[in-house]
Amino acid sequence: MLMDYFDNYAAAYTPYKSGSWCYEDGCIYRGLALLHEATGEGRWFAHLERLVNAQVSTDGDLAGYTVEEFNIDHILSGRALIYLYKATGDEKYKAGAYLLARQLALHPRTRSGVYWHKKVYPWQIWLDGLYMGLPFQIEFARLSGDDALLDDALEQLVKALSLTRESATGLYAHGYDESRQQQWADPDTGRSPAHWARALGWLAMALVDIAELVGMGRMDATGAGDHARRLLAQILALRTADGTWLQVIDRPDLPGNYAESSATAMFAYALLKAERIGFAEGFAAVGHGGLLALARRGLQTDAKGRLRLAGICHVAGLGGFSNVYRDGTANYYLTEPVVEDDAKGVGPLMMAKAESIRLGLDAPEHPAVPATPPAHI
Q1: Max intra-chain CA distance, the chain
Q2: DSSP 288
Q3: Sign of the CA dihedral 171, 175, 176, 181?
Q4: How many domains does the structure of the chain reveal?
Q5: What pLDDT digit, counting tens, does each position of 98-153 carry?
Q6: β pairing state of 299-301 and 369-370
Q7: First and final CA of the chain: distance in angstroms?
């Protein structure tokens, strides 16, 4: 069921932002690349190549992209460029990767040395950005032979982890404002006040992807390995009885809190991968449980008989956006629209499925259940 859903989804997929280079498309690109790696099936590579080619010129220019926007989100899709370059040798993909690396070379940083999340969010570090930028930087460092870039990525990761970790919860704040100017920033710590599950999902995926790229020894030497193990242990402890995770992950008491599909897929992927690459035993079973929970309850059949992945928070962030100020409180995260079939949920679900295949954990899949309100999967 899941593989057919992914195949149909990719065949019908249209670029997320009218064809402009963006991280949402990058989520699908990562999912397709990992399905191709896990299965060797050409259909996943064909989908990936077709979708990326629509956004990359023969000279490596990227549709709608400018370096000067300095948006760290735009870097994520560059991992697909490196994947396709290694597979095909087509120089346009390499040129596109070098264009994104040029952004990183010029990208503004906090005084502590970490990339700003965006030029429009100055002096801020968001957990999202650690996934968007740092694994690509490490892959590009290997492509270009620039070891200093790899060292820099690990230094940024460890610094960001130390700045965002809340000792009281063992979790990480969605955002950190070095300037302490944002209303959402604690005046003493600079951190945002609540724990949004998808932000932690981006972080968990960043940690396991970086660990796979640099090796566990390097992660442990920097201290990032300890951060990763503690975070994954906390994630294990916070799953719900049905194997999913809540939108505000540590607040089951919060009225209106709900099981959120994108975070559940991200945690499933991170836990499955963590065991495969040697973090610890026992993670994969929980990750696989999350994957099965989404296949059983999150995938729903619509009125036309099509499968849809429900229960995805459309978007959430911090600070001003579309004439709304997002204050980062737990209640704020429950005000954002909940949608279905969003790339930020489907892409990580592809990734989780790929990891389950690599671990040999596939089990009979359950049929889709009738549609229910998407905020209560």
Answers
A1: 54
A2: H
A3: negative
A4: 1
A5: 999 999 999 999 999 999 999 999 999 999 999 999 999 999 999 999 999 999 99
A6: parallel
A7: 18
pLDDT at 376: 35
CATH code, domain with 323: 1.50.10.10
Is 23 in contact with 342 (CB distance < 8 Å)? no
pLDDT class of 368 with cuts at 50, 70, 90: very low
Q: pLDDT confidence of 37, banded at 50, 70, 90?
A: very high
Look up the domain containing 20 and give its range.
2-370
Q: Which two tokens stand for residue 248?
A: 């505000």
56 occurs within a structural domain: yes
Note whether residue 346 is domain-resident: yes
Cβ atoms 195, 123 nearer than 8 A: no
DSSP for 84-150?
Answer: HHHHH--HHHHHHHHHHHHHHHH--B-TTSPBPSBTTBTTEEEHHHHHHHHHHHHHHHHHHT-HHHH
Note whether residue 377 is domain-resident: no
pTM, whole model, 2 decimals?
A: 0.95
Angstrom distances, CA of residue 330 to CA of 174, 194, 200, 247, 256 = 11, 5, 14, 9, 11
- Give the Cα separation of 264 and 112 in Å (integer): 31
Instruction: Determine the pLDDT at residue 280.
Output: 80
Let me know if residue 375 belongs to a domain.
no
